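[Automated response] Your request has been received and processed.

Submitted sequence:
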Amino acid sequence: MTIRPAKSPRPDVATKVLGGLLPEDWEWAVASRAVKPLLPAVRQLALPPRVRARIEYNVEATVRDVLGDPRGRRVVEKEVARRARAEAARDLPKKTLESRVARSARSAVQAWIAARLPAALARARAEIARDKKETDTLLARIAAMDARALHRFAGRWNWDDGSYAPDAVVRHPACALGTALLVYWFAAPVYFTQWRTARASDDPETFAMLAYIEGRIASGGYPHAGIAFDPRHLQLTEASLREDEPKRRELPAQVFAATTRGGVVGFAPPPTARRTRGA
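Generated structure:
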């Protein structure tokens, strides 16, 4: 929001003070501090780490949005401009003027935060409860699915919402091999060849899910269930790394497979010009 300078002999004072107290992202800084007491309760929820991280982000965003209401900034601006005009009329030295205006501005900011914070935190607590309930309900739905329902669900999942739901699908006892392959290739496994371990990767949950699928396929742990899926039809196996993304491991041979209605067909990995590098 554009700050309108006070109409006074020193109109720059209000602008300078407000710029220091209310930078463009001031709501984030205040919200980050304000929600800290709520975060332990979020981290204790029996939910996948990615879901907890999303809830933490939403909580902070909720508080930020309430505090960042443009009306609040206008209230503060009005108070600072009023004080700047009053102090400027006294012809004080510039540093003294700025100090007094800053003190008044700080009080205005703190008053606004104090007035809005209880409502913001109440909304955040309600969102935590709602997100927990929605996630529990979704995971319960997945647990009750049969092989075909799992396959339909996995094919429609929006990966922008994270990998926690697909992870529940591939760990389900009824998950078919074709469904596991669908989840595996949609999770962009080539991207994760940049790392050797989940801990080192930028998405440990998805890395761990991919490793689980690789291991369960290798041990023959997925039933066929008559579900067909061929990753080559979607060109999912042809992904490659950029030049600035080092490749530290190869995908295992067992994931280069397609399921038909009656069986499993292996295929050769697509050729790649990149060589495995050391960590």
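Summary generated for your ticket: The chain has a mean pLDDT of 80. The chain has two domains: 12-142, 145-266.
If you did not submit this request, please reply to this message.
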